[in-house]
Design brief:
This protein is an alpha/beta fold and 243 residues long. It has two domains: 3-124, 3-Layer(aba) Sandwich (Rossmann fold), CATH 3.40.50; 132-228, Winged helix-like DNA-binding domain superfamily/Winged helix DNA-binding domain (Arc Repressor Mutant, subunit A). The protein has eight helices and twelve strands. Strand 11 and strand 12 (223-228) form a beta hairpin. The radius of gyration is 21 Å and the shape is elongated. The two termini are 35 Å apart. Mean pLDDT is 83; it is low at 1-12 and 234-243.
Amino acid sequence: MNLSQWEKWTLVDRQHVLFVVARRSVERRLLPSLEQRYAVKVTQLRREALQVIEEELPDLVIVDVPSIRFDVGRFFDSFPDPRLSIATFLLLGKGVRLDQMPRANGYLRHPFTTRQLMRRLGRAVPAGSSDMVVWEDLYLDTENRFLIWDGQQVPVTPKQVTLAQVFLSSPDTIISREHLMQEVWGTAFMGDTRTLDVHIHWLRKAIMQLEAPFLIETERGIGYRLVSHLPPPDSPLLSDTIS
């Protein structure tokens, strides 16, 4: 584990994730997407992972079961305090039966895409930071001013952050131009709304840069609406939880 990971852990005000993985290819593929949403530390060894859990109390522990060289059930049993509210998520290999695995908050089998992983994590461990606003896996980091989709991010201005926050807080709903002017600029004056039009244009451009399946539709004479073009979710490969 390098120093930058430890620095990132303490400086970024996001949910803390411990990623236990011993395959470099898996780490390289998944880590960039995880770091868009979480503050992440990576470990390979059981002893090191338990030390991080005891000292740092992560919100979530993700374990890549096929790559580790220790028993995941005994690892969970060794958590310093069973009363700690640490969520767990297991990445499983083909053919592994759930009744052979310890109870966890979520599961996903290899192979999978990073988008599938981030969606499953979002359902299993809802974001707890007030600095993140999310709808349909489109994230707005209000503190660092980034719009995030599928592991990619684009910077947005403070006004665009406020504008995006209004849309994400009321998705698939027509929002009047008057309401947007009041929320973003603190005025009900509607004599010249070119500023609003320009910021809508920039926000649309940011979404296009992410290649995200969302659109800010114009409702002529009324206002705007944020809509999703995501296809219906596929049937999950595994249940997120064990009842």
